[in-house]
Amino acid sequence: EAKRHGGNTHRVFVPSYRAVADSRRDLIRDLREAIQTQSITLYYQPIINAQTRHLAGFEALARWTHPILGPIPPDRFIRLAEEAGLMHDLGYALLAEACCTARTWPQNLWVSVNISVDQLYHRSFVQEVRKILKETSYPPKRLQLEVIETIFMESDAATYGVLQELDALGVRIVLDDFGKGYSSLGYLRFFPFSKIKLDASFVRDMLSDSRSAAIVSAVIALAGDLGVAVTAEGVETEEYFHRLSNKGCTEVQGYLFGYPMPKERVASFIALNSRRVPFITQSTLQS
Ligand code: C2E
Ligand code: MG
Ligand code: MG
Ligand code: MG
To answer: Which residues form the EAL domain (predicted)?
Structure first.
Protein backbone atom coordinates (compact mmCIF):
# COMPACT_ATOMS: atom_id res chain seq x y z
CA GLU A 1 0.00 0.00 0.00
CA ALA A 2 2.77 2.45 0.99
CA LYS A 3 4.74 1.47 -2.09
CA ARG A 4 1.82 2.27 -4.36
CA HIS A 5 1.82 5.79 -2.88
CA GLY A 6 5.46 6.20 -3.82
CA GLY A 7 6.87 4.98 -0.51
CA ASN A 8 7.78 8.43 0.79
CA THR A 9 4.27 9.85 1.22
CA HIS A 10 3.68 11.21 4.71
CA ARG A 11 1.42 8.71 6.41
CA VAL A 12 -0.84 9.76 9.22
CA PHE A 13 -1.54 7.11 11.83
CA VAL A 14 -5.19 6.22 11.61
CA PRO A 15 -6.36 3.74 14.23
CA SER A 16 -7.94 0.77 12.54
CA TYR A 17 -11.67 0.29 12.71
CA ARG A 18 -10.98 -2.75 14.84
CA ALA A 19 -8.96 -0.78 17.40
CA VAL A 20 -11.64 1.90 17.67
CA ALA A 21 -14.36 -0.71 18.09
CA ASP A 22 -12.31 -2.51 20.77
CA SER A 23 -11.66 0.63 22.81
CA ARG A 24 -15.29 1.60 22.54
CA ARG A 25 -16.34 -1.83 23.73
CA ASP A 26 -13.90 -1.56 26.64
CA LEU A 27 -15.23 1.86 27.57
CA ILE A 28 -18.81 0.59 27.55
CA ARG A 29 -17.75 -2.32 29.76
CA ASP A 30 -16.09 0.14 32.19
CA LEU A 31 -19.11 2.42 32.09
CA ARG A 32 -21.42 -0.46 32.93
CA GLU A 33 -19.20 -1.34 35.86
CA ALA A 34 -19.02 2.28 37.00
CA ILE A 35 -22.83 2.46 37.03
CA GLN A 36 -23.08 -0.78 39.00
CA THR A 37 -20.55 0.35 41.59
CA GLN A 38 -22.06 3.85 41.75
CA SER A 39 -18.76 5.44 40.72
CA ILE A 40 -20.53 8.04 38.62
CA THR A 41 -21.32 10.93 40.91
CA LEU A 42 -23.05 14.27 40.77
CA TYR A 43 -21.44 17.67 41.14
CA TYR A 44 -23.62 20.67 41.88
CA GLN A 45 -23.25 24.12 40.31
CA PRO A 46 -24.93 27.15 41.93
CA ILE A 47 -27.57 29.16 40.04
CA ILE A 48 -28.12 32.73 41.22
CA ASN A 49 -31.13 35.03 41.05
CA ALA A 50 -29.97 37.72 38.61
CA GLN A 51 -32.01 40.45 40.27
CA THR A 52 -31.27 39.83 43.96
CA ARG A 53 -27.96 37.95 43.68
CA HIS A 54 -29.31 35.35 46.09
CA LEU A 55 -28.61 31.67 45.66
CA ALA A 56 -31.62 30.06 43.92
CA GLY A 57 -30.60 26.43 43.46
CA PHE A 58 -28.09 24.04 41.92
CA GLU A 59 -27.78 22.13 38.67
CA ALA A 60 -26.67 18.51 39.11
CA LEU A 61 -23.92 17.53 36.65
CA ALA A 62 -22.66 13.97 36.25
CA ARG A 63 -18.95 13.19 36.71
CA TRP A 64 -16.99 10.06 35.90
CA THR A 65 -13.30 9.61 36.51
CA HIS A 66 -12.09 6.56 34.61
CA PRO A 67 -9.42 4.62 36.56
CA ILE A 68 -6.94 4.83 33.66
CA LEU A 69 -8.22 7.48 31.26
CA GLY A 70 -9.05 10.04 33.96
CA PRO A 71 -12.10 12.32 33.81
CA ILE A 72 -14.41 11.61 30.85
CA PRO A 73 -16.59 14.58 29.77
CA PRO A 74 -20.28 13.99 30.60
CA ASP A 75 -21.35 14.83 27.04
CA ARG A 76 -19.31 11.83 25.98
CA PHE A 77 -20.25 9.19 28.55
CA ILE A 78 -23.93 10.19 28.55
CA ARG A 79 -24.05 9.62 24.78
CA LEU A 80 -22.20 6.32 25.21
CA ALA A 81 -24.64 5.26 27.93
CA GLU A 82 -27.55 6.05 25.62
CA GLU A 83 -26.04 4.10 22.74
CA ALA A 84 -25.30 1.13 24.99
CA GLY A 85 -28.76 1.10 26.52
CA LEU A 86 -27.40 2.01 29.97
CA MET A 87 -28.96 5.45 30.31
CA HIS A 88 -32.13 4.26 31.94
CA ASP A 89 -30.28 2.73 34.91
CA LEU A 90 -27.79 5.57 35.15
CA GLY A 91 -30.47 8.25 34.92
CA TYR A 92 -32.57 6.60 37.61
CA ALA A 93 -29.61 6.40 40.02
CA LEU A 94 -28.61 10.02 39.39
CA LEU A 95 -32.12 11.37 39.86
CA ALA A 96 -32.50 9.48 43.13
CA GLU A 97 -29.09 10.72 44.26
CA ALA A 98 -29.96 14.36 43.41
CA CYS A 99 -33.26 14.25 45.36
CA CYS A 100 -31.58 12.57 48.31
CA THR A 101 -28.87 15.23 48.43
CA ALA A 102 -31.12 18.25 47.84
CA ARG A 103 -33.45 17.11 50.62
CA THR A 104 -30.78 18.21 53.11
CA TRP A 105 -30.61 21.77 51.71
CA PRO A 106 -32.67 24.77 52.92
CA GLN A 107 -36.26 24.62 51.66
CA ASN A 108 -35.99 27.61 49.36
CA LEU A 109 -33.36 25.90 47.17
CA TRP A 110 -34.17 23.57 44.27
CA VAL A 111 -32.16 21.07 42.30
CA SER A 112 -32.17 20.85 38.51
CA VAL A 113 -31.41 17.48 36.90
CA ASN A 114 -30.58 16.84 33.23
CA ILE A 115 -32.82 14.21 31.65
CA SER A 116 -31.79 12.52 28.42
CA VAL A 117 -34.21 11.75 25.60
CA ASP A 118 -33.89 8.02 26.34
CA GLN A 119 -35.03 8.45 29.90
CA LEU A 120 -37.98 10.67 29.05
CA TYR A 121 -39.39 8.16 26.58
CA HIS A 122 -38.93 5.11 28.75
CA ARG A 123 -42.47 3.90 29.38
CA SER A 124 -42.15 3.96 33.17
CA PHE A 125 -40.31 7.29 33.48
CA VAL A 126 -43.13 9.27 35.08
CA GLN A 127 -43.86 6.41 37.45
CA GLU A 128 -40.19 6.30 38.43
CA VAL A 129 -40.03 10.03 39.09
CA ARG A 130 -43.08 9.64 41.32
CA LYS A 131 -41.43 6.72 43.12
CA ILE A 132 -38.17 8.60 43.71
CA LEU A 133 -40.02 11.66 45.04
CA LYS A 134 -41.96 9.43 47.41
CA GLU A 135 -39.02 7.37 48.63
CA THR A 136 -36.82 10.39 49.25
CA SER A 137 -39.83 12.44 50.48
CA TYR A 138 -38.59 15.26 48.27
CA PRO A 139 -41.08 18.02 47.40
CA PRO A 140 -41.84 17.97 43.64
CA LYS A 141 -41.87 21.78 43.53
CA ARG A 142 -38.15 21.75 44.37
CA LEU A 143 -37.26 19.49 41.45
CA GLN A 144 -36.53 20.78 37.95
CA LEU A 145 -35.98 18.47 35.01
CA GLU A 146 -33.85 19.88 32.19
CA VAL A 147 -34.65 18.59 28.71
CA ILE A 148 -33.21 19.56 25.35
CA GLU A 149 -35.12 20.18 22.15
CA THR A 150 -34.22 16.82 20.61
CA ILE A 151 -37.09 15.44 22.73
CA PHE A 152 -39.29 16.91 20.01
CA MET A 153 -37.92 14.45 17.47
CA GLU A 154 -40.57 12.06 18.77
CA SER A 155 -44.20 12.71 17.97
CA ASP A 156 -45.59 15.90 19.46
CA ALA A 157 -48.41 13.96 21.08
CA ALA A 158 -46.01 11.62 22.91
CA THR A 159 -43.78 14.49 24.06
CA TYR A 160 -46.74 16.54 25.17
CA GLY A 161 -48.16 13.59 27.10
CA VAL A 162 -45.00 12.96 29.15
CA LEU A 163 -44.38 16.63 29.87
CA GLN A 164 -48.00 17.10 30.95
CA GLU A 165 -47.80 14.15 33.33
CA LEU A 166 -44.61 15.49 34.87
CA ASP A 167 -46.13 18.94 35.12
CA ALA A 168 -49.13 17.40 36.90
CA LEU A 169 -46.76 15.86 39.46
CA GLY A 170 -45.70 19.39 40.35
CA VAL A 171 -42.21 18.99 38.90
CA ARG A 172 -40.90 21.89 36.82
CA ILE A 173 -39.79 21.38 33.24
CA VAL A 174 -36.88 23.42 31.92
CA LEU A 175 -35.86 23.78 28.27
CA ASP A 176 -32.05 23.54 28.30
CA ASP A 177 -29.58 24.93 25.72
CA PHE A 178 -32.18 27.15 24.06
CA GLY A 179 -30.82 28.57 20.82
CA LYS A 180 -28.15 25.91 20.36
CA GLY A 181 -30.00 23.86 17.72
CA TYR A 182 -33.09 24.47 15.70
CA SER A 183 -34.99 26.01 18.60
CA SER A 184 -38.48 26.55 17.35
CA LEU A 185 -40.83 29.00 18.97
CA GLY A 186 -43.50 26.34 18.49
CA TYR A 187 -42.01 24.41 21.43
CA LEU A 188 -42.66 27.37 23.67
CA ARG A 189 -46.20 27.65 22.42
CA PHE A 190 -47.25 24.08 23.02
CA PHE A 191 -45.34 22.80 26.02
CA PRO A 192 -45.58 23.82 29.68
CA PHE A 193 -41.99 24.90 30.34
CA SER A 194 -41.45 26.91 33.46
CA LYS A 195 -37.97 28.03 32.47
CA ILE A 196 -35.72 28.44 29.44
CA LYS A 197 -31.94 28.15 29.68
CA LEU A 198 -30.24 30.41 27.19
CA ASP A 199 -27.31 28.59 25.64
CA ALA A 200 -23.83 29.69 26.71
CA SER A 201 -22.80 30.39 23.09
CA PHE A 202 -25.09 33.47 22.91
CA VAL A 203 -23.95 34.67 26.30
CA ARG A 204 -20.29 34.28 25.36
CA ASP A 205 -20.67 36.40 22.22
CA MET A 206 -23.07 39.05 23.53
CA LEU A 207 -20.36 41.53 24.53
CA SER A 208 -18.52 41.44 21.20
CA ASP A 209 -21.31 40.74 18.74
CA SER A 210 -24.39 42.93 18.50
CA ARG A 211 -26.42 40.19 16.81
CA SER A 212 -25.87 37.83 19.73
CA ALA A 213 -26.74 40.66 22.12
CA ALA A 214 -29.98 41.28 20.19
CA ILE A 215 -30.92 37.60 20.39
CA VAL A 216 -30.22 37.51 24.13
CA SER A 217 -32.46 40.56 24.65
CA ALA A 218 -35.20 39.09 22.47
CA VAL A 219 -35.22 35.73 24.26
CA ILE A 220 -35.35 37.44 27.67
CA ALA A 221 -38.22 39.69 26.52
CA LEU A 222 -40.09 36.76 24.97
CA ALA A 223 -39.71 34.70 28.14
CA GLY A 224 -40.97 37.64 30.19
CA ASP A 225 -44.08 37.98 28.02
CA LEU A 226 -44.73 34.24 28.23
CA GLY A 227 -44.35 34.29 31.99
CA VAL A 228 -41.42 31.88 31.76
CA ALA A 229 -38.19 32.35 33.71
CA VAL A 230 -34.89 32.54 31.83
CA THR A 231 -31.48 31.39 33.03
CA ALA A 232 -28.30 32.50 31.25
CA GLU A 233 -25.56 29.86 31.15
CA GLY A 234 -21.81 30.48 31.00
CA VAL A 235 -21.66 33.74 32.97
CA GLU A 236 -17.96 34.17 33.69
CA THR A 237 -17.46 37.86 34.50
CA GLU A 238 -19.23 40.74 36.25
CA GLU A 239 -19.73 42.52 32.95
CA TYR A 240 -21.85 39.66 31.63
CA PHE A 241 -23.74 39.54 34.88
CA HIS A 242 -24.60 43.25 34.79
CA ARG A 243 -25.72 43.19 31.17
CA LEU A 244 -27.93 40.18 31.74
CA SER A 245 -29.35 41.53 34.97
CA ASN A 246 -30.17 44.86 33.30
CA LYS A 247 -31.91 43.10 30.44
CA GLY A 248 -34.19 41.45 33.01
CA CYS A 249 -32.72 37.95 33.01
CA THR A 250 -34.15 35.85 35.86
CA GLU A 251 -31.15 33.72 36.82
CA VAL A 252 -27.49 33.28 35.97
CA GLN A 253 -25.15 30.30 36.11
CA GLY A 254 -21.43 30.28 35.49
CA TYR A 255 -17.92 30.21 36.86
CA LEU A 256 -18.32 33.78 38.20
CA PHE A 257 -20.54 32.38 40.96
CA GLY A 258 -19.15 28.91 41.34
CA TYR A 259 -17.83 25.82 39.63
CA PRO A 260 -19.66 22.52 39.86
CA MET A 261 -18.70 21.07 43.28
CA PRO A 262 -19.09 17.75 45.10
CA LYS A 263 -22.05 17.49 47.50
CA GLU A 264 -19.72 17.66 50.51
CA ARG A 265 -18.79 21.22 49.55
CA VAL A 266 -22.36 22.37 48.89
CA ALA A 267 -23.31 22.72 52.56
CA SER A 268 -20.48 25.13 53.35
CA PHE A 269 -21.13 27.01 50.11
CA ILE A 270 -24.77 27.50 51.15
CA ALA A 271 -23.77 28.56 54.65
CA LEU A 272 -21.21 31.07 53.39
CA ASN A 273 -23.55 32.65 50.88
CA SER A 274 -26.47 33.05 53.25
CA ARG A 275 -24.31 34.75 55.91
CA ARG A 276 -22.70 37.45 53.81
CA VAL A 277 -24.02 39.93 51.27
CA PRO A 278 -24.83 37.59 48.41
CA PHE A 279 -22.18 36.95 45.83
CA ILE A 280 -19.96 39.95 46.08
CA THR A 281 -17.13 38.80 43.89
CA GLN A 282 -13.58 40.08 43.73
CA SER A 283 -14.28 42.15 40.63
CA THR A 284 -17.27 43.89 42.28
CA LEU A 285 -15.08 44.95 45.18
CA GLN A 286 -12.50 46.40 42.83
CA SER A 287 -14.89 48.41 40.64
P1 C2E B 1 -25.63 21.51 30.34
O2 C2E B 1 -26.79 20.83 30.96
O3 C2E B 1 -25.93 22.63 29.42
O4 C2E B 1 -24.70 21.97 31.55
C5 C2E B 1 -23.95 23.17 31.58
C6 C2E B 1 -22.51 22.94 31.25
O7 C2E B 1 -21.82 24.19 31.24
C8 C2E B 1 -21.78 22.06 32.27
O9 C2E B 1 -20.79 21.31 31.55
C10 C2E B 1 -21.08 23.11 33.15
O11 C2E B 1 -19.97 22.60 33.84
C12 C2E B 1 -20.69 24.13 32.11
N13 C2E B 1 -20.49 25.49 32.65
C14 C2E B 1 -21.10 26.04 33.71
N15 C2E B 1 -20.70 27.32 33.90
C16 C2E B 1 -19.80 27.58 32.93
C17 C2E B 1 -19.00 28.76 32.60
O18 C2E B 1 -19.07 29.81 33.22
N19 C2E B 1 -18.19 28.63 31.51
C20 C2E B 1 -18.11 27.49 30.78
N21 C2E B 1 -17.27 27.46 29.75
N22 C2E B 1 -18.84 26.37 31.07
C23 C2E B 1 -19.68 26.42 32.14
P24 C2E B 1 -20.55 19.76 31.85
O25 C2E B 1 -20.67 19.50 33.33
O26 C2E B 1 -19.31 19.37 31.15
O27 C2E B 1 -21.79 19.05 31.17
C28 C2E B 1 -21.94 19.08 29.77
C29 C2E B 1 -23.28 18.54 29.35
O30 C2E B 1 -23.39 17.14 29.65
C31 C2E B 1 -24.45 19.18 30.07
O32 C2E B 1 -24.74 20.44 29.50
C33 C2E B 1 -25.53 18.15 29.82
O34 C2E B 1 -26.07 18.28 28.53
C35 C2E B 1 -24.74 16.84 29.89
N36 C2E B 1 -24.90 16.27 31.24
C37 C2E B 1 -24.18 16.47 32.36
N38 C2E B 1 -24.65 15.76 33.40
C39 C2E B 1 -25.72 15.07 32.93
C40 C2E B 1 -26.66 14.14 33.51
O41 C2E B 1 -26.63 13.81 34.71
N42 C2E B 1 -27.63 13.63 32.68
C43 C2E B 1 -27.72 13.98 31.37
N44 C2E B 1 -28.70 13.43 30.62
N45 C2E B 1 -26.88 14.85 30.79
C46 C2E B 1 -25.88 15.40 31.56
MG1 MG C 1 -28.43 21.41 31.88
MG1 MG D 1 -27.37 23.92 29.13
MG1 MG E 1 -25.34 21.70 27.20
So the answer is: 24-274
